[in-house]
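Much of our argument rests on the idea that a fold can be written as discrete symbols. Part of our work consisted of pairing the sequence of a single chain with a tokenised description of its backbone. We regard such an encoding as a compact summary of how the chain folds. The amino acid sequence and the backbone structure tokens for this protein are reproduced below.
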Amino acid sequence: PDTFLAAEIIREKIFINTKQEIPYSSAVTITSMSENPEKKLLSIHASIHVETESQKGIIVGRGGAMIKKIGEAARAELERLFGIHIFLGLQAKVDKNWSKDTKALKKLGY
């Protein structure tokens, strides 16, 4: 399975579910992806990078509701595309001004 595709699907679900409250200052990195053929399960762990604590609050939502909604939508699409059950772990991180930092951009794959 493609880590780039997985990251882009998660990012798409961020935009859809936050109604673009999060500007284009979010990025998704896949921190790990491993398949367990015996359990027919693909585990994906991803970090959602934003620039401010307030953006992180929007991503997480009250009681974790928004990040759960993003994860459920992304997982459903990833399962359909990859044809395997998926465990998707999402984490929101603040990386201040990452979109203006060339080192951070490179680290995030831009």
In short: The beta strands are 27-36, 41-50, 85-94.
